[in-house]
Amino acid sequence: MNKHVSPKMNRRAFVIGTAAVGTGLAIGLDLPFGGPAVVRAAAASPEVNAWVVIRPDDTVVIRIARSEMGQGSLTGLAQLVAEELECDWSKVTTEYPTPGQSVARKRVWGDFSTGGSRGIRSSQDYVRKGGATARVMLIQAAADEWRVPASECTVAKGVITHTASGKTTTYGKVAEAAAKLTPPAEVKLKDPKDWTIAGKGLLRLDTADKTTGTMVYGIDIKLPGMLNAAIKDCPVFGGKVKSFDEAKITGMKGVKKIVKVGDSAVAVVADTWWHAKTALEALPIVWDEGDNAKVSSETIAKWLAEGLDDTQPAYVGNKNGDVKAAIAGAAKKVEAVYNYPYQNHATMEPMNATALYTADKCEVWCGTQNGEAAFAAVLEASGLPAEKCDVHKVMLGGGFGRRGMTDYVRQAVAIAKQMPGTPIKLLWSREEDMTHGRYHPITQCKMTGAFDADNNLIALHYRLSGQSILFSVRPDALQNGMDPAAFQGVAQSGEAALGYSVPNLLVEHSMRNPHVPPGFWRGVNVNHNAIYMECFMDELAHAAGQDPLEFRRKLMGKNPKHLAVLNAVAEKIGWTTPAPQGVYRGIAQVMGYGSYVAGAAEISVTDGSKIKVLRIVASTDPGYVVNPAQVERQIAGSFVYGLSALFYGGCTVKDGRIEQTNFDTFNSMRINEMPKVESVMVPSGGFWGGVGEPTIGVAAPAVLNAYFAATGKRIRSVPLRDQNISFA
Amino acid sequence: MANLTINGKTFTLDVEPDTPLLWAIRENAGLTGTKYGCGIAQCGACTVHMDGVATRSCGVSVAEAEGKKITTIEGLASGSTLHKVQQAWIAKDVPQCGYCQSGMIMAVAALLSEKPKPTDADIDEAITNICRCGTFKQVREAIHTIASA
Q: Does the beta-carbon distance from B100 to A348 stay under 8 Å?
């Protein structure tokens, strides 16, 4: 039985497991497809609606359009559907519809994009309605069978009861009939305070296979007759392949073909990836590196520093009063310049995709954070229309924003297109992955704060200079040239608004876009904006002779939600009581992705340069918490990612290329460096914020502020390894 | 050709002797639970047991592995009974993306066979695997849960 879904089925007849149509589909026979954790609905189990399939044995298959990459959204979204469905949670499984199916059904599953901490918050409304709608239809089907009004029936854990007669039935028994009913026009969603499945710290649905080696990631895809490809893209971004000496490796063991990929890369296709990689390393390639080969970290830093100058043009992101006049007339002013480097995502699983191209079909199997973007990339790279393409999503070995990009998908298709009929698995080496990332953007920031004679902060000038992600990745989202996302965390309003009120404020961005391609990197622009603003707030507090917490509080009266999370961490860490001997504290807060977050760190410092991060208390108000156990993991995980970048990260540029090539030069935190993390969740309701990213913003500034408390030294440059500061 | 003993089974594989064990396991023996992360023995995603010792298989050649008893994540359980580390990983919901966890579990299993009740310092010293998702808190808790059982 084929395990794919034909993309051309009407809504009612959407049955998984229909006969294979076409070569590509037939190939899928041996695919474990995400393993048992992502079970395909059984043959002939009709869907009640797009989100819910119920099998005769009462198994509930919940469809998930967003991607699971470890963040837990798969489980959280299933909880939301199951909550409204009133099914038995122990009978819930999940499956991914494909982007091709979604497109064929007028995007019935909505957005597949899984970034910006949107997985749950941007789909909670329609997936809950999907669950509620299915519940109403299932109850109606039972009521119809019993010839009683649906209003006399109740349901609990997938068992429908007609109270008056005592009759009962199950979802599995009425699903077939329910599928034929017209869905209700409107459904009422539960008040979150009545949740019994959502809101609970339930175990993830996808864990078991991750402990036995049976979970299938993109790197594990096996297709009959499949060959493996290793690739080398020009080490200088924007460069091209000039020539390569194919004869030098022709005949090497296992080598099947050497192909040019686009105008910038060469791939070797072989029986095994090890053979492909070995041959590729022996292949002489001449690059046309172009002018970008002259760029270095030094030239970039100089160009960005020029942007800190007021005379250079800049986009204004947040403004009130007259900053320049206020600073000119101030009793005291404080100025500081900070910077933040490029960072590689370094997902544990390097980029990869498997493609099969034939004259009338192109299919790709890969981990992607955006199934529809990958689908569009397949269309473009293959030149085939939508009905002849599809993307089969598998578990991601980490995403963090990197797998929202489709460069590796295009490459896989470009190779497969040169070998029609042969499935090609393209896998990047770690070195390729490190040097061809979509890097956290590089920025500098000059801040000037001014006080009146009573040490009140009367002006704040925040001048960013550096790279825009949207300029490169989504130019359509620029607003008259301005990148609104550049102001994440320091914006005037919206989901990443600044929490401070300063009478004279100017937040601006001198956009400078070096040739190194930027991308969305967990936390995105919140990472550097939170360091700049929160470390500078600490500087201002000290300049004013005030406690950093009290100083902030005075500026946050108009932002009670920002203030509430700050107060929550202050209380939890015991800010008003002295820290133990040799322990120093730092505090920070920021808003991002619709959530309010704050963090307080306790550290000790040895010899002025060895930092032990003992404890970080984090507080978040994401509006609603769907799975507190997973939110806790996202908070701790975001700290590992953010502190790895702070201590060990930083990608430098020499001769136009990235210098760090593996984990030996781009290290990552280990368990011995992990602080104790305590999470305080204070969901205040009425809005839906994200949880995967926001907290990453507070870890680094809280630690840096604690470092100042310990040593009296300000660190204004990341990573710390460049200042000879390390984990103890 | 090389003869490798993996999970109690002998594999006769068409590989060159200098092929890293990792790739022989993944591509020739077809056991994909062992993951590629760095290829330079830094990250630990490829950790297997060689004669019971946690070993980064990307840094060992097939020639060096011949004659040794190799256990991969697929061979950790006893039949249908999961190893206590796997059980604890499920009970404590340790993995996030899960990609590094095969190696993490193998490293922890080796630690526990040597030191059934490891201290935090023992854990810090023995478990040096990279996890970019940041599951360290759950890893530590799960180890202590096993040790105190």
A: yes
Q: Which residue of B has its CA nearest to A210?
A: B98
How many A-B residue pairs are in contact by the CB < 8 A criterion?
A: 177
Mean pLDDT on A61-66: 97
Read off the pLDDT band of A44 (50, 70, 90): low
| Residue in B with minimal Cα distance to A221 | B32
Residue recorded with tokens 């030069």: A665
Residue A375 has pLDDT above 70, yes or no: yes
Contacts by residues A685-688 (CB-CB < 8 Å, ≥ 24 positions apart) = A685/A192, A685/A623, A685/A624, A686/A623, A687/A594, A687/A623, A688/A120, A688/A121, A688/A124, A688/A594, A688/A622, A688/A623, A688/A624
Q: Are residues A71 and A136 in the same domain?
A: yes
The number of residues in chain B equals 149
pLDDT digits (tens, 9 = 90+) for B43-77: 999 999 999 999 999 999 999 999 999 999 999 99
A498 and A475 inside one domain: yes
What's the pLDDT score for residue A217?
Answer: 98
Is residue A8 situated within a structural domain? no
Q: What is the pLDDT of residues B7-23, one digit of tens each?
A: 999 999 999 999 999 99
pLDDT band for position A45 (50/70/90)?
Answer: confident
Domain boundary among A211, A240, A271: A211
Give every CB contact of residue A197 below 8 A, 6+ residues apart in sequence: A79, A82, A83, A89
Side-chain-side CA neighbours of A20 within 13 Å: the count stands at: 12
| Range A426-464 burial, b when 16+ CB lie within 10 A, else e | bbbbbbbbbbbbbbbbbbbbbbbbbbeeebebbbbbbbb
Q: Is residue A298 part of a domain?
A: no
- For every residue of A664-727, DSSP letters joined together read TTS----GGGPPEEEEEE---SSS----SSTTHHHHHHHHHHHHHHHHS----BS-GGGGT-EE
Q: How many domains does chain A have?
A: 3
Which residue among A210, A346, A669 places its CB closest to the CB of B95?
A: A210
Joined tokens for residue B63: 């020639």
- What is the distance between the alpha carbons of residues A216 and A208, in angstroms, rounded to a whole number? 12
Check: CB of residue B117 under 8 Å from CB of residue B82: no
Nearest-angstrom CA–CA distance, A245 and A457: 65
| DSSP per-residue letters across A137-199 | HHHHHHHHHHTS-GGGEEEETTEEEETTTTEEEEHHHHHHHHTTSPPPS--PPPPGGG-SSTT
Residue of A nearest to B100 (CA): A348
A434 occurs within a structural domain? no
Residues in Cβ contact with A89 at an 8 Å cutoff, skipping those fewer than 6 apart? A79, A82, A197, A202
CB contacts, 8 Å: B30 with chain A = 222
Please state the pTM of the whole predicted model. Answer: 0.94
Question: Where in the sequence is the domain holding A144, given as residue range(s)?
Answer: 22-211
Same domain, A404 and A468: no
Best mutation target among B26, B137, B144 (most A Cβ atoms within 10 Å) is: B137
pLDDT tens for each residue of A322-347: 999 999 999 999 999 999 999 999 99
Pairing of strands A167-170, A352-358: unpaired
B132·A204 Cβ contact <8 A? no
- Which of B133, B135, B140, B146 to mutate to probe the A interface, most A CBs <10 Å? B133
Going along chain B from its start, the domains and CATH numbers come out as: 2-75 (3.10.20.30), 84-147 (1.10.150.120)
Q: Which CATH number belongs to the domain containing residue A378 in this structure?
A: 3.30.365.10
Identify any residues that bridge with A233 across adjacent strands, giving them in sequence order. A265
**Nearest-neighbour CA in chain B from A129: distance (Å):** 28
Per the domain annotation, does A312 fall within a domain? no
